[in-house]
From TrEMBL:
PANTHER family: RECOMBINATION-ASSOCIATED PROTEIN RDGC. GO terms for molecular function: double-stranded DNA binding. It comes from Azomonas macrocytogenes. It is found in: Cytoplasm, Nucleoid. One of its GO terms (cellular component) is cytoplasm. Belongs to the RdgC family. Its main location: cytoplasm. Keywords: Cytoplasm, DNA recombination. Pfam families: RdgC. InterPro entries: RdgC. GO terms for biological process: DNA recombination; regulation of DNA recombination. The gene is rdgC. May be involved in recombination. This is Recombination-associated protein RdgC.
Amino acid sequence: MWFRNLLVYRLTQNISLDPETLEAALASKPARPCASQELNTYGFVAPFGKGEDAPLVHASEGFLLIAARKEERILPSSVVNDALKEKIDEIETQQMRKVYKKEREQLKDEIVQSFLPRAFIRKSATYAAIAPALGLIWVDTSSAKRAEDLLSTLREALGSLPIRPLAIKVAPAATLTSWVQSQQASAGFQILDECELRDTHEDGGTVRCKRQDLASDEIQRHLGAGKQVTQLGLAWQDKLSFILDDKLIIKRLRFEDLLQEQAEQDGGDDALGQQDASFTLMMLTFAEFIPALTEALGGEEILQGI
């Protein structure tokens, strides 16, 4: 149940997000299989358990867990393009005429429709956790597109979802660069051995370092030449390690063994109990970690009226 990535969103207005209200809303947008002529479908599924009786919202300690599933038919563009070329060649040879753009697009649509029923189906799930008391939503992805797919569908189900990405007063790259230059992060955070350095000029280069001493002369020379730290490996309070980038995307999130062992003890022998214990401990950790990270980076930028 442990999230591997994190995009953080701030609720900008108070809305009703109790489990019962949310359950009813998600039920209006259930996941379903792709029909024979559909490219994809998107809807909500039970985050824990299977079957029709499994709830679409899992609630624990004031936190809510939801999940959305996307089904899409995989139709490689190379297959469509090869079939289109064959069809165009056939028409131009037999009818002795040129196939122009409008007809080409129509032929392509016909080929796609004929191939769809035979295309493979790929399924993918995205999880999100809601902390109503904190006014935050955490999405387990590093892709803004995947997060927006879930959030826009949630907005449709609820009728309204006033949110925006978490914003920091100071540009994160400036803070991360300062940390590496001084080899001193804010209290509670530790600099690890991985970073990305990027030249601020339009055609500037990028340097990626792994298992590298970031205090070395080589890294400091890059910083002295004007490069900024755009990704940095960090650890927090011996509980988490992660990569933070300059867009506030948290990647490769790893919960240390102590937390995982505690969740195993709390969850008992039941599979659902293990999932619930992992989720609860993860949320309680995030409730401390996100404010600490926000403060370390310079504090959250609060829009007027929020």
